[in-house]
Amino acid sequence: MFLRKATPEDANAVLALWKTAEASESVTDSENEVRRISTRENVAFILAVIDGRIVGSIIAAFDGWRANMYRLATHPACRRQGVARALVKDAEKAIAEWGAKRVTALVDKDHAWAVHFWEAVGYARDEKWSRHVRNL
Q: Please, are residues 71 and 25 in contact by the beta-carbon 8 Å criterion?
């Protein structure tokens, strides 16, 4: 396995991974949006690749104040093999290099496997805050 930065050409393969990994759907799940985010500054869109196939993804972003990680996804056939841990570690490294002091992982609370993973790698659930969203 090796990790690399996503490119615009990876968009369809990434969307297929997210679907296979049962990632929660989002209004940004389109080829154009995935291509766009892969070229942004202060965004680490990292892919895990095995035998030329994308088997994992994570998006880490820092706006100078807040750091967030999104879209951690691992192909079901590659779970429990260190793929997600490697992606998180690489994303944390990028965020730290940008100067972030804290990072938030956005996790679908209905995906128990995801909640357990994040807790296992040292992320605590923040009961103080709730997230409010609005699609534009």
A: no
Task: Answer for the pair 26, 14: CB distance below 8 angstroms, yes or no.
Answer: no
What does the alpha-carbon distance between residue 123 and residue 28 come to, in Å, rounded to a whole number?
A: 25
Q: What is the spatial distance between Cα 99 and Cα 113, in angstroms, rounded to a whole number?
A: 30
- The full set of domain ranges for the chain reads 2-120
Fold of 2-120: Aminopeptidase (3.40.630)
Residue 24 is predicted with a pLDDT of: 87
Cβ–Cβ under 8 Å, residues 48 and 3 = yes
pTM, rounded to two decimals:
0.90
Terminal Cα distance for the chain, rounded? 37
